[in-house]
Amino acid sequence: MGHGHGHGAAHTGAEHLGRLWIAFAIGAAFMLVEFVVGIATGSLALISDAAHMLTDVLGVGMALAAILLARHAGTRGSRTFGLYRAEVLAALANAVLLFGVAAYVVYEAVRRLGDPPAVPGLPVILAAVAGLAANLVSFFVLRDGAKENINVRGAYLEVLADLIGSVGVLLSGLVTLLFGWRYADPVMGVAIGLFVLPRTYKLAASALRILFQHAPERLDVAEVLAELGRLPGVAEAHDLHVWTLTSGMEVASAHLTTCDDADPAQVLKAAQDMLAARYHIEHATLQVEPGDSAHRCREIPW
Questions:
Q1: What CA–CA distance (Å, rounded) separates 162 from 185?
Q2: Is the Cβ–Cβ distance between 106 and 194 less than 8 Å?
Q3: Distance between CA 112 and CA 129 in Å, rounded?
Q4: Rounded to the nearest 5 degrees, what angle is found at the Cα of 300, between the Cα atoms of 299 and 302?
Q5: Domains within the chain, CATH numbers bracketed
Q6: Looking at 46-55, 119-128, 157-166, 291-300, which range is the least confident one?
Q7: What is the pLDDT of residues 1-35, one digit of tens each?
Q8: If you placed Cys at 105, which of 48, 207, 219, 298 could pair as Cys (CB 3.0 to 4.6 Å)?
Q9: For 192-229, what is each residue's pLDDT tens digit?
Q10: How far apart are the first and last CA of the chain?
Q11: Gap between the Cα atoms of 200 and 204, Å rounded
């Protein structure tokens, strides 16, 4: 029995921490600005954008805590896989939080449509411009890390939602200032909330897929099993499991029944090399077994 060589743990690198710290500082500062101006002017669009930015700050804070926890927890004692799943739990909590805020904003905006309050346009525009600038910086800071880490992707999606929200607030402020249309603010509040919801669903689905230990979407499990079975010296491959521990860490296990004249060490190396090269699975636990023992694992009911 053997396993692969690496853990693919680039997702815990210092570059992710640096990006998250920058996004956290920027988000916290401009969240306060938007809350103060939104409450002072009674702008629901601005308050909703500030609330989204609050979820950014909380979400990025959870992402930071999860990555730090995963980096320093190690695999001591009963934590044989460390605490890498903390990142996935943080992403799921982030999605739940964002869903709650978006739902509240939509509800409040619909309620206000019956009697929209007068909102001064200029302060809303100035605050929206400041928020837009902050979100643009955070957007570009987190964009690269979001491609390889679900935790950073959660923070990135919230920043993206806030970026669109800031544009919406800016437009509603301009419409209010130029035309005095009182419905601009609640209408934009509804639009921002509806924009966020499907992205929140996608993030939650990705996190749940990992927590339920589904195979990665990019992999065809039947194809992987067939490729293992076609390796030289392998009579049959079975009992294949593939799952994601956390972003960038995909794990596999399988049983390989060998031919009578096969060298188990060569079969093991060939299987590990194939999984790493073709499917980017670098941590694979493979049980190489002679033909007369292959029936034993099939007796397991699950």
A1: 16
A2: yes
A3: 24
A4: 135
A5: 9-211 (1.20.1510.10), 221-299 (3.30.70.1350)
A6: 291-300
A7: 544 444 444 444 566 677 778 878 888 888 888 88
A8: 48
A9: 777 778 877 887 888 899 899 999 988 999 999 999 99
A10: 21
A11: 6
Q: Of all residues in the chain, what percent carry a pLDDT higher than 70?
A: 77
Whole-model pTM: value is: 0.69
The Cα–Cα gap between 5 and 126 comes to 54
Q: Decide: 235 and 257 in contact? Cβ < 8 Å.
A: yes
- Token pair 């929206």 is found at 128
**Which among 210, 226, 205 has a CA at the least distance from the CA of 278?**
226
CA distances from 85 to 39, 54, 89 (A): 38, 24, 6
pLDDT (tens digit per residue) in 77-89: 676 676 777 778 8
d(CA 217, CA 95): 20
pLDDT at 53: 74
Is 116:91 a contact under the CB 8 Å cutoff? no
Cα–Cα distance for residue pair 126/62, rounded to 1 Å: 30
- Joined tokens for residue 261: 């004249």
Can you spell out the DSSP letters for the chain?
-B--S---GGGGSHHHHHHHHHHHHHHHHHHHHHHHHHHHHT-HHHHHHHHHHHHHHHHHHHHHHHHHHHHHHTT-TT-TTTTTHHHHHHHHHHHHHHHHHHHHHHHHHHHHTTSPPP--HHHHHHHHHHHHHHHHHHHHHHHHHHTT-HHHHHHHHHHHHHHHHHHHHHHHHHHHHHH--TTHHHHHHHHHHHHHHHHHHHHHHHHHHHHTTPPPTT--HHHHHHHHHTSTTEEEEEEEEEEEEETTEEEEEEEEEEPTT--HHHHHHHHHHHHHHHH---EEEEEEEEGGGTTTGGGS--
